[in-house]
Structure formats: C-alpha cells, structure tokens
Amino acid sequence: MKKVLLALSLVANIGLAKEKVVVLHAGSLAVPFSDMEKAFEAKYPQYDVVREAAGSRACARKITDIHKPADVMASAAYKVIDNLLIPNYAKFNVHFVTNEMAIAYTPKSKYANEINEKNWTDIFLREGVKVGHSNPNMDPCGYRSILVTKIAEKYYKQDGFYNKLMGYGESYENGEERKEKVIVRPKETDLLGLIEAGVYDYLYIYKSVAEQHGLKYIVLPPEVSLQDKKFSDSYKGATFKITGKKPGSYITKKGSAMVYGITVVENEKEGLPKNREGAVKFVNFVLSPEGQDIMKRNGQGVITPPVITGDASILGR
C-alpha cells in the first residue's frame, strides 16, 4: 500500500511540474520584469519564468557565443537584437518601450545641493568628482552614456568636455577606465550599490531605473537625453565604436532615440528555444494592455501599437 501511495504521489508531483520560460533581459528591465513575472505566472500557473539580467549585449553574447538556452530576449536597445541575434537566433524584433538618459546622485554626492540640468557638465569636471557608467561593449546604457557626453559637449558649448571627462577616443578598448574620474562596471545596475555607498558621485543611468531605486536625478534636456525622435538629426551627430560579432570587428553606434526590443530566441540547429509556446505567451503578455501598464508604472514609455520587424507570425501578429 505504501508503494502504491508513493507512486501516486510521484505521478501527482510530475503532473504539477511547471514548464520553465527562460528570459534573458537588460538590467534596466529587472524591476518591471519582476512584476511581469508575477503577473504572468498568476495568469499562466503552468509556467515558471526564470529571469537573468545582464547588459543587453552580454545577454545576446550568451546566446550566440556559449549557446545558453533561452526562450526570450529583451534588450534595452532594439538594434542589439538586429545586430547580434537576427537572422540565426531570432526571426523578429518588437519595439515595445522607450526610456531616456538621466544623471543620478545621492545626498552624499559632491555638490549635490548645487548640481542641476544647466551646470552638471561643469561639476563633472571639478577636482575630486567621480562619475560612473556601464561598459559600452556589454551594455547599451554604457555607449549611450558616452553618446550623451558627446552630445552634451555640443549642446552646452563646452569644448573638450568628452575628452576631459572620459578620453576614450573613438572606442573603449580592453575595458580601460580613467580611474581618477570614471568608474565602469558591466551593466548600469551593477553601479547602484556603489553610488549608494558613496564610492563615486554621479551615475549615467536610465531615468526609469533612477526612479525605481529612489535616487535623486537630473532630468536632461530632450536635446541631450536620447528621449525624443524629434532630435534624431542632432543625436546621430555623436558616434562611438563598440565591439562587433567577430573578434577585432567594430560597430559604429550613432546617437538615436531610445527604443527597447523583445524577441523569441530560436536556433533550429541548437534546438532553441526550449519552450516555444511559453516564450510566445510571455512576449504577447508583455505586449498586452496588462503588460504595458506594468511598464508604465515602472517609469517607461510604451510604444502603442508596438513596431514589429521580421517574421513575427508565431505571435499571431
């Protein structure tokens, strides 16, 4: 009798086993996607969403270079999906939300009571002031930080601002940083604990992330913040080289309005994704009115209707 009961128990447990949906996503999506996970699992209790946050390019590299099993990829820059995943690892790209760059700080930051949207470039160059940004080769927030610095130099008519602050030249080689002025980490969310601990003073970060973590922040002019397509012509005047698909190759990034992308990961040769049905349901949930409300509550603009490139027929769109 005990053996029969044990067998029945095992069968019941197997029946209750949930299917995993593996989601790799940008660090800046950690908070909204945590909310998304809970809401999705409440609606679809047969699934267990397993999330992993990293820089968007780092996420893509995990898929392309080490063939990490994944079902969904969400990037803080839609072009990461276009450049690194399509056509071999994804068939479509959905532009679904927007954001903007801001300058975050804490009460511990030097000149915190003085800084504003007009004088931040002057304060950044003051002796003893340290600034943080993420690695441009791993995270779109990193190269956007550099592009914003270049745009700001022109907008504020402050000659030499970029070189005085960062001095990377045309590309960020070998992960070097100007230790007297700049702190660099793989993704922008890696820098949050350091600024809160007073290791450095100011952080280039997405406005939504600053809001989510209760940081003080400077709202940059739309001509600088990469928020508004209206200023696309001036944005694209700033350029920076990041590493490409192959070692020794580069991609030139141009300033542009910030647009996030999401896709279902697939590679027929490697048998990815593991859970295609769950992946499709998750992406459609993100794009649903409920998913859009979650993004709005977390400080991100929503693209309605979403812009889809490629073959997204599996989404029923």
Structural class: alpha/beta
Number of strands: 13
Q: Which spans have pLDDT < 50 for at least 5 consecutive residues? A: 4-15
Oligomer designation? single chain
Helix content: 25-40%
Please write the CATH class name of the largest domain: Alpha Beta
| C-alpha geometry | globular
Please give the domain count.
Answer: 2
Strand order of the largest sheet: 2-1-3-12-4-13
The end-to-end span amounts to 53 Å
Return the CATH topology of the largest domain.
Answer: D-Maltodextrin-Binding Protein, domain 2
Q: What is the typical, i.e. mean, pLDDT?
A: 90
CATH superfamily of the largest domain: Periplasmic binding protein-like II
Written account of the structure:
The chain is α/β, with parallel strands linked by helices and 317 residues long. The protein folds into 2 domains: 155 residues, Periplasmic binding protein-like II (D-Maltodextrin-Binding Protein, domain 2, 3-Layer(aba) Sandwich), CATH 3.40.190; 154 residues, D-Maltodextrin-Binding Protein, domain 2. Helices cover 34% and strands 24% of the residues. It is built from 12 helices and 13 strands. The strands form 3 sheets. Strands 2-1-3-12-4-13 form a 6-stranded mixed β-sheet, sandwiched between helices. It has a 5-stranded mixed β-sheet with strand order 7-6-8-5-9. A two-stranded antiparallel sheet has the order 10-11. Helix 2 runs antiparallel to helix 12 and helix 3 runs parallel beside helix 4. The longest helix is centred in the middle third of the chain and has 16 residues. The radius of gyration is 21 Å and the shape is globular. 44% of the residues are buried. About 4% of the residues have low confidence.
